[in-house]
Amino acid sequence: MPLPTHQHVVPPTASGRAHRSPIQRTDGQSSPATTTRQLLAAEARIDELERALAEARQAAFTDALTGALNRRGFEEAYQRELARSRRNGSHLAIALIDLDDFKRLNDSLGHQVGDEALVHLVKALRAALRPSDVLCRFGGEEFVVLLPETALNEAVTAISRFQRQFAANAMPGRDIQVTFSAGVVVKEAAESVQESILRADAATYAAKRAGKNCVVTG
């Protein structure tokens, strides 16, 4: 004769139904509250990853010392502004700015002061430029400014005005005034960005030869 098996019997409630945990599901699925928490956690993780990617992208396109765009960032900005210029039929001015006597500044006062001069220039430029203008550190003490929808005479006026303001203000915390020379061009339809930059560079060297702290067109 088989022995009786012992079974665990859930005692019935007053209504005759067995007790069951309110979050227990018999169909193997999570409760709505659990699913909501999981979705919120997943969304928070996605937001965190997107922020990290945005920060990494910004770092890849930005000069670490000054915060201006680097050459990689410039290439992307230039292509965007070139497309806009072609679409609107508008001018795209390019200014190349080169700090005067930067090597002598580094040699006489040290590289820290030289770095401070670069940061000083970028902060002053950002305060003077329009939101639509693009600032890039092109290398060493050279910077390139893209001025969308700007004719040559307008670009020269803007850069010359900024040049006077910059030369009149000493570096913060130091009794040192620095100046820059600049070459300004407007991109021609048939030339590449490299050709435009070369023309601006030649104009900058002409400004250096003319006595520095001036603007020359190319």
Describe the structure in brief.
With 218 residues, the chain is of the alpha+beta class.
Please give a structural write-up.
The chain is of the alpha+beta class and 218 residues long. The protein folds into 2 domains: 28-60; 71-217, Alpha-Beta Plaits. 49% of the residues lie in helices and 14% in strands. It is built from 6 helices and 5 strands, in the order H-H-E-H-H-E-E-H-E-H-E. It has helices spanning 32-60, 71-88, 102-109, 111-128, 152-168, 193-209; strands spanning 92-99, 134-139, 142-148, 180-186, 215-217. The protein has a 5-stranded mixed beta sheet with strand order 2-3-1-4-5. A hairpin with a 2-residue loop joins strand 2 (134-139) and strand 3. It is globular.
Helix and strand arrangement:
Elements: H1 32-60, H2 71-88, E1 92-99, H3 102-109, H4 111-128, E2 134-139, E3 142-148, H5 152-168, E4 180-186, H6 193-209, E5 215-217
Parallel strand pairs: 4-5
Antiparallel strand pairs: 1-3, 1-4, 2-3
Helix pairs in contact: 3-4
CATH H-level homologous superfamily name of the largest domain: Reverse transcriptase/Diguanylate cyclase domain
CA radius of gyration is 32 Å
The amount of helix comes to: 40-55%
Uncertain segments:
1-25
* CATH top-level class of the largest domain: Alpha Beta
**Strand portion:** 5-15%
Biggest β-sheet: strands ordered side by side in the sheet: 2-3-1-4-5
Core attributes:
alpha+beta; 218 residues; 2 domains; globular; 5-stranded mixed β-sheet; Alpha-Beta Plaits
